[in-house]
Design goal:
Structural class: alpha+beta
Strand order of the largest sheet: 2-3-4-5-1-6-7
Order of helices and strands: EHEEEHEHEEHHEEEHEEEE
Number of domains: 2
Shape: globular
Number of strands: 14
Strand content: 25-35%
Oligomer: single chain
Largest sheet: 7 strands, antiparallel
């Protein structure tokens, strides 16, 4: 089958990803991801200050997809305050988002290390500034995975605006994004455009070819993708990868072994399932560009 480019991610926002890909080391281990059904993100702050709930709700209108709602009620906040922590409670689409404030950076350089797996940082064009504190944003809401992730994206983008965030660490992708990139993508509002925020990508050069491995597809209960690209095709590898991932996310099921995909009606690239290069117990689907 053929899957044409149609994710709708603004071309300028992935310009750094469609130039010649620089070689990167292989990832030593699978990201320390959380439960696939737990919707979680970290907002990295330039100062140890919890943003105001009213400011988050105002900013939410810039990113909300039709039908999404967010409400802050001051009277519901008192029970979440004590001497050790401070938590904002936001009502979201009949569910609840919690914004927990931690007045210190994410430890062990984890957020800094995760920058390399964000498409916003390919080519080394963005580095995470120092952060003094962070917010842990969790969402408990109804709907399928794409609906919940899209809602969390709108909320996190709003929090980023309200707090002048310096980075956004998407937990299940193991990737830290440039907040400007994150918010620009979020403004597109379409779920498939936002897919670029929900995954991480590791790039390694092996035997004259580039191996691109996705992270985070467990959020949809789908396998990650290993895309192999020759140097001559590397300028189109990231967009093609996003198209392939978007295809299976939209269908809700993995492609069968031996099925074919392509960028044109005539191209037939076989799908094979192989052990993940970072976890031999896990299976990924492998596609090799010609």
């Amino acid at each position: 089958m053929t899957w044409p480019t149609r994710l709708g991610v603004p071309a300028a926002l992935i310009a750094i990803a469609v130039t010649l890909l620089a070689p990167r080391p292989s990832r030593a281990a699978v990201p320390g991801v959380m439960d696939a059904k737990m919707n979680l993100a970290f907002v990295l702050l330039p100062e140890a200050k919890l943003p105001k709930g009213e400011a988050i709700v105002r900013a939410f209108a810039t990113y909300a997809v039709k039908g999404q709602s967010l409400r802050y009620r001051p009277e519901k906040q008192a029970k979440w305050k004590n001497k050790d922590e401070e938590v904002l409670v936001l009502e979201a689409d009949g569910g609840q988002a919690l914004v927990a404030f931690t007045p210190k950076p994410i430890p062990n350089g984890e957020a800094e290390e995760a920058v390399r797996y964000s498409i916003s940082a390919l080519g080394g064009k963005w580095k995470l500034p120092p952060h003094k504190a962070h917010l842990v944003v969790t969402l408990h809401s109804r709907g399928d995975a794409m609906t919940r992730l899209s809602l969390l994206t709108s909320i996190v983008a709003a929090i980023s605006d309200a707090s002048s965030a310096v980075g956004i660490y998407w937990g299940n992708a193991g990737a830290t994004h440039d907040p400007k990139f994150f918010c620009d993508i979020a403004k597109a509002r379409t779920a498939l455009s936002r897919l670029v925020l929900w995954i991480g990508v590791s790039i390694a050069r092996e035997g004259g070819r580039y191996n691109l491995l996705s992270y985070g597809m467990n959020q949809f209960e789908l396998p990650d993708l290993l895309l192999v690209a020759p140097p001559a095709k590397s300028d189109g590898a990231i967009p093609f990868m996003l198209d392939l991932l978007g295809m299976v996310v939209e269908s809700g099921k993995p492609l069968p072994e031996g099925d074919t995909v392509g960028r044109t009606a005539k191209e037939k690239l076989a799908v094979h399932y192989v052990p993940s290069p970072v976890d031999r117990k896990a299976k990924v689907w492998r596609v090799e560009m010609k």
